[in-house]
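Chapter summary example.
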Amino acid sequence: MAEFTHFNEEGRAKMVDVSDKPETARTALAHSSITVNKEIFEKITNHKMKKGDVLAVAQVAAVMAAKKTWDLIPMCHPIPLTGVNVSFTWEKSDDETYQLQIAASVKTKGNTGVEMEALTAASACALTVYDMCKAVDKSMVIGPTYLVEKTGGKNGDFKRTKQVK
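The structure predicted for these 165 residues follows.
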C-alpha cells in the first residue's frame, strides 16, 4: 500500500519536496462530461448561444485552468506545462439528452506529474459549458470526471482498464 507523503512529522499537511525526483517527460489524460438537453445541444452545435462559441470558450478555460492548477489546489506544485489539448465529442442518449465528452491532455517535462492539471482542465471545461448555457436550462449534469491515463514518474504509467459511466 502506498504511503501518504503530504503529512509532516506532526501529522499536518505539507507540500511534498520533489527536488530530488528526476526530471522526466510526463503526460496525463483526464475525462469529464456534461449532459445537456436538445435545445442546448442545438444552440451549441449551430453557434446560436447568446454568450458566444461555447466550445471555443470552454477550451480556452481548460487551458487556463491547467496552467493555474497550483493556484487552486493547495498542495500542487507550479509546473511548467509543455502542452495542453482539449477535444470534444457528442453522444446522444435514448432520453433525448446529449452528452458532451471532454478529453483534456496535459504534458510537461519535470519532476512531478500533471494528473491534477488534466483533471482541473477537464473540470473547468465542463463548468464553463454549464456557465455559458445555464440561462437556457439549469438541469445540466456534469461528470463523471476521472483520470484516464498518465505516463512518467516514479510510480510509472497508469491506464484505466474499465469504462467509467
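To summarize the output: Residues 115-133 form the longest helix (19 residues).
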